[in-house]
Design goal:
194 residues, 2 domains, five-stranded antiparallel beta sheet, 49% helix
Length: 194
């Protein structure tokens, strides 16, 4: 039974790795958040597999055809403990499986400094909100980036940069180092406080 529980958690983790990976790398200080996009095509398969293993584990533990006459007190305690573990990990499995759908909604690592050179970009290669949140956090931490907001749904990025520290022409390289591609949408304009 322990193998089934470990398999369930492992497969659920793999199913959400494309979105958890970028955020985990960002927390660890890495900027290569796009590395995990290779897992995105496998997410539906891994999610179904994870749910299948979870259903199998419940079926195996809660089936009614166990012979009551053969149960010892130790077996009953073991089954009770396995049921508690399985019911305890089930919420974590569902959090892992749904993580890609709410990953980007809670992130805002920016200051509200909308000064400097404004530029808007189309970003290619993002597969979920985790990609956007990871890249946004990475870029917002870059010296000279006053503000950066990445929108996964629209595939847009809005930046305000201090031109003396970070020029507009370096932004595509920063985005590329995160595993994505940035194409400037409009010409940049200067905005000051006011």
């Amino acid at each position: 039974m322990n193998k089934t529980i470990i398999t369930t958690m492992g497969v659920a983790f793999l199913a959400s790795l494309c979105c958890i990976g970028p955020i985990a790398l960002l927390v660890l200080g890495s900027t290569s958040v796009g590395l995990f996009t290779v897992f995105e095509p496998f997410r539906p398969i891994l999610a179904v597999l994870s749910l299948g293993v979870l259903v199998y584990a419940y079926f195996k533990l809660f089936r009614k055809d166990r012979k009551d006459c053969c149960k010892t007190e130790d077996l009953k305690k073991s089954l009770r403990k396995q049921k508690q573990i399985l019911m305890g990990i089930t919420p974590f499995v569902f959090v892992l499986l749904t993580f890609p759908y709410f990953a980007g909604s809670s992130h805002d690592g920016n200051s509200n400094n909308h000064t400097g050179i404004k530029s808007e970009w189309l970003v290619e290669g993002m597969t979920c909100g985790g990609c956007a949140a990871g890249m946004e956090g990475s870029l917002a931490a870059t010296d000279g980036m006053n503000y950066c907001k990445v929108n996964y749904k629209d595939k847009n990025m809005l930046c305000f940069t201090d031109d003396s520290k970070l020029t507009i022409d370096k932004i595509p390289k920063l985005v590329s180092s995160n595993g994505f591609k940035a194409i400037q949408k409009i010409e940049h304009t200067t905005h000051g406080k006011g």
